[in-house]
Structures are given as C-alpha cells and as structure tokens.
Amino acid sequence: IVEDYKLFRVGLHSLLEKDPTIRVVGGSETAEEALKEIEQLKPHVVFMDLGLPGMNGIDATQAIKQLDPTIRVIILTSHNTDEEVLAALGAGAHAYCLKEIASERLREVLKSVSDGAAWLDPAIAAVGLKVFQGGSSDLLPNTSKQQNATLSVALTEQEQRVLELLVEGKSNNEIADTLHFSVHTAKVYVSRILEKLSVSDRVQAAVKAVKSGLVE
C-alpha cells in the first residue's frame, strides 16, 4: 500500500486483511520507499495513491512496471481528471479507483485485478470514455493519432468477442465462463490479442481497442 496519509494507509491495511485470502506485506508513505520495499517483498498487487510527496503515483507506477512487469497496480486516489486517468493507465496501472469506493467492492476489485482483469471506477468511467473519444491519443502508450484513426487488425470472430469482454474488465476466468472454454484457452486468446494490437498488457489493449473503434 503506497499512501502518504497514515490513517488511510493503516485503515486500508486493516480492511483488506479482514479477508483471509488477502495478505498485506507492506506499506509506504512515499514512492521512493515503496520501490525499495517492492524490490524486496515482490508483492503481487500494489495499491498506489497519486498525490504523493516526492515522486508522484504515475511515475511510481511506471517505475514499478519497469522493475517487474508482472506486478499489478491499482490506483486508489481522489484525483479524477482526464489527464490523470489516462496517464495512470498509460503508465501501466490495471485499475483506477476513487477513495469513495465501498470496502467490499474494493476487495472485489483487488481479486479481479489479481486474476488478470482491468477495472475503472464507475464514477470516472465517463471521464475515460470522453478521453477515448476526444482525441487525447498523445496520452496512450505506444500509439499515434494516425494509428488510432486507421488501426485495422485482423481478429477472428472469437478474438473479437474476447477483446470485447476484456474491454468490459472481465478476468480470464470470467472470459472462459462466458465463452465456455478453459482458462488456458482464454489466456491464449488474450496473448494473441496483445500481440496483434502491439501492446504489452490488458489495459493498453482496452484503451487502444476503444480509441481505435475496434470495440464500441
């Protein structure tokens, strides 16, 4: 948990550990401290605030992904501007939650993201959609405005359906259940889609798919 407000950090720690399937391994009030802890503890998921002293949460997210691309980052913040949402996703965050989120919902998001899904808080979903449609392609990772406007990817019918579910934030298990095949098959389809879209993770795939019109 990376959060400079101690009361919130300790409270989140207690909230998460009420679930016996969740173990909190550390907490930091600055990004610099967090990066040292993360290198040692190698957590599966990191909760990241944006408004940190020193290095901000967006730069910290990017640094975490460079340190270990397998770590999942959940942004948990009170910030909700267009630029911050897309910059966080572009830095590699897998979920973006506002601090007003219900406690039970937050635990669900953690488990979903841990299982491979991406998630946007409904309160900022409209912000995300506005940015996708508003031409802010300079904030998207590894894409250009021309590519976004003309992207044409040869997806099979099944890959298209998987992509649509991925954009909805479905995990590999949920995709497998919906389309009636194994989790392994879902992972194979997702890997093919990432390769065809020339992106490195599910969030970038979702952003690029919506921005380019592959998914409405």
Topology:
Layout: H1 6-16, H2 31-41, E1 45-48, H3 57-67, E2 72-77, H4 82-91, E3 95-98, H5 103-114, E4 119-120, H6 122-133, H7 145-150, H8 157-167, H9 172-179, H10 183-197, H11 202-212
Parallel strand pairs: 1-2, 2-3, 3-4
Helix pairs in contact: 2-3, 3-4, 4-6, 8-10, 8-11, 9-10, 10-11
Q: What does this protein look like?
A:
The chain has 216 residues and is an alpha/beta fold. It folds into 2 domains: 127 residues, Response regulator (Rossmann fold), CATH 3.40.50; 76 residues, 3-Layer(aba) Sandwich (Rossmann fold), CATH 3.40.50. Helices cover 55% and strands 7% of the residues. The chain contains 11 helices and 4 strands; from the N terminus they run ααβαβαβαβαααααα. A 4-stranded parallel sheet has the order 1-2-3-4. α5 links the parallel β3 and β4. α2 packs parallel to α3 and α8 packs across α11. The relative contact order is 0.11. About 7% of the residues have low confidence.
